Amino acid sequence: MTTATSPAVDSRAFDEARAEAFGERLVDVLNSGALCLMTSIGHRTGLFDTMAEIGPATTTGLADAAGLKERYVREWLGAMTVGGIVEHDPEEGTYTLPAEHAASLSRSAPTDNIAVFAQYIPQLGSVEEDIVHCFRNGGGVPYERYHRFHDIMAEDSGQSVLPALRNHILPLVSGLGDKLESGIRVLDVGCGRGKALNLLASWYPNSRFVGYDLSEEAVAFARNEAAELGNTNVIFEARDLSTFDRDAEPAAFDFVTTFDAVHDQKDPLAVLRGIRRSLTADGVYLAQDIKGSSHVHLNCEQPIAPLLYTISCMHCMTVSLAQDGEGLGAMWGKEKALEYFNAAGFGSVEVNELDHDIQNYWYVCRP
Question: What residue ranges carry the coiled-coil annotation (predicted)?
């Protein structure tokens, strides 16, 4: 019995083996976190690409080939070697990135480069102080505090969306390719740097494309890229969509897309209702969003669930809260997504998965 002077004691026996195993796991977590930082550096400096190209090299040879400072390259190689990513021949004094490792780390692997995702870790770490403040005081961290997030998202979509866009994503909507060839009106909500929209605009010159995003920087990048590509059939606009349910132009578009963009909005349901309002009677809305459940216990088998929850807490949720928004977060899950699509007025919703994509569902929504 527990009394006022006798604190409750866990009746379970302390499992020494379990405690030891968990301690070992935490050491692995620390090492993996450190390797994520160094992997990001290897990607951003081009070291992985250089190693994949030149083969075995000394620290000086690698630094010269990559145009970097040898002392930093040497220390980086130390981390990569003890981390089991790079192989070292002490007799020859050379370092090698095995081809099997380069397949997941170099830009020669455009659809499976895990080094792209490693960049999220230092990016999120840069706002740790802001996030800790929010834990204690509420509020959120605004978009402008994330200096490289659009860069990373563009690279992320560059290997998960763009290579699959024509042959896997667009065919989710029957007959869409033919309509785009003939000429329809297309809107991308939360377009970021406009990579997907600019690609579509270059493929389908008879169609007209519009991109909206809150970030002025992202929109400026998208416009510049459109000009470089000679896309005269696309426009980009910096726009706050928190009242999109009221000010979206009715029946203005035949096809609307969102690529991983709904859950970090100030008012996600207002955005979805605006999308529904902006569609023609026979229009289609295609939404890419995170593959997960609204129930945390059902996400334990999701291969990158810890990363997704971390990105949600330290970016998606908090940028919404910074606008006094809902703070829905990336892991809102399929169940809540279907609830929101229904509340927005969509009559039918198909949930699709793509073999190459472990992190997203693809929702095809019709009025």
Answer: none
Spatial separation of the C-alpha atoms in residues 56 and 95, rounded to whole Å: 5
CA atoms within 13 A on the CB side of 114: 15
d(CA 224, CA 247): 27
pLDDT in tens, the chain (367 residues): 444 444 554 657 899 999 999 999 999 999 999 999 999 999 999 999 999 999 999 999 999 999 999 999 999 999 999 999 999 999 999 999 999 999 999 998 766 899 999 999 999 999 999 999 999 999 999 999 999 998 998 898 888 899 999 999 999 999 999 999 999 999 999 999 999 999 999 999 999 999 999 999 999 999 999 999 999 999 999 999 999 999 999 999 999 999 999 999 999 999 999 999 999 999 999 999 999 999 999 999 999 999 999 999 999 999 999 999 999 999 999 999 999 999 999 999 999 999 888 899 999 999 9
HSE on the CB side for 45, CA within 13 Å?
22
Q: What is the pTM of this model?
A: 0.90
* Terminal Cα-to-Cα distance of the chain (whole angstroms): 61
Task: Measure the CA–CA gap between 30 and 128, rounded to whole angstroms.
Answer: 17
Going by DSSP bridges, is the β-strand pair 208-213/185-189 parallel, antiparallel, or unpaired? parallel
CATH architecture for residues 125-366: 3-Layer(aba) Sandwich (3.40)
- Where does 16-107 sit in CATH, by number? 1.10.10.10
Enumerate the domain spans of the chain. 16-107, 125-366
Which tokens belong to 277?
């309002």
Distance CA 365, CA 367 (A): 7
